[in-house]
Amino acid sequence: MYRKVIKRALDILISFLSLVILSPVLLITAIAVKIDSKGPALFKQTRLGRGGKEFKILKFRSMVLNAEHTGSGVYSGKDDARVTKVGKFIRKTSIDELPQVINILAGQMSLIGPRPPLTYHPWPIEEYSDEQKRMFEVRPGITGWAQVNGRKDVEWNRRIEMNVWYVDHVSFILDLKIFFMTIFKVATNADNENVSETVKKYAPAQAAEEQTEKEEIK
User: Fold this and answer.
1) In the chain, N or C: fewer CB atoms in 10 Å?
2) Which of 79, 78, 35, 77 is nearest to 60 (CA)?
3) Are 18 and 97 in contact (CB under 8 A)?
4) What angle do CA 68, 152, 61 make, to 5 degrees?
5) How far, in Å, CA of 190 to CA of 54, rounded?
6) Burial label, 126 (beta-carbon count in 10 A; 0-12, 13-18, 19+)
7) Tell me, what DSSP letter sits at residue 121?
């Protein structure tokens, strides 16, 4: 009942109220982004949503135009020159994620759920194992279980494991716990920078094979 009906109803209610209440913040941020650097205020990026379906996630642009094609690609670490002055602030405060309330209203996202990965990173949808694909059984979220348990410090295989765990245990109490843990993470700016690449240099199938070997040894 919660997962199929109540969770979606709460998403619509909370995202609509957030859009109304935070409209001044959204407007000021959009203007600041435009003044600070050349380009649109919003950044649209293709992500994988429920069922592995592609959608355009919305963020306030925090980097220079075409940043993904320069520097360190998808990874943005400390003192990344591609991040604008305003971008540093809205990233630190997570204001850059606020436009995703529109994605929630559109039914593409939820407030709480696995973060939607890029179509090509950490790997294409075809390379996810059947178990890993289970993370796509629910709508992706603005924040999730993996984000409050390491966020950007966690290697992707482990992130996906936590996403699947969330799918198996989703409940109102768990979502409430993640919500308050997220507030703490944002307030302390914990785990909000990539300290190293978090994708193993081998395919998920090989990772699963190695895990099986470890279990057999035990």
Assistant:
1) C
2) 35
3) no
4) 40
5) 29
6) exposed
7) S
Encode pLDDT of 123-147 as tens digits.
999 999 999 999 999 999 999 999 9
Cβ-based neighbour number of residue 122 at 10 Å: 19
**pLDDT tens digits for 59-74?**
999 998 776 666 555 5
Q: What is the mean pLDDT of residues 9-24?
A: 96
Q: Which residues pair with 59 in a beta bridge?
A: 43
- Give the burial class of 166: count Cβ atoms within 10 A of its Cβ; 0-12 exposed, 13-18 middle, 19 or more buried: buried
On the question of pLDDT at 192 being above 60, the answer is no
pLDDT at position 55 is: 98
Reading the block at residue 171, the tokens are 């409940």
Are residues 113 and 138 in contact, defined by beta-carbon separation less than 8 angstroms?
Answer: yes
Q: Return d(Cα 167, Cα 146) in angstroms, integer.
A: 12
Tokens describing residue 189: 């700016």
Give the C-alpha separation, 10 to 144, whole Å.
16
Cβ partners under 8 Å of residue 203, min gap 6: 123, 127
Checking if the pLDDT of 210 tops 60, the result is no
Instruction: Put residue 92 in one of left, alpha, beta given phi > 0 → left and psi -120 to 50 → alpha.
Output: alpha
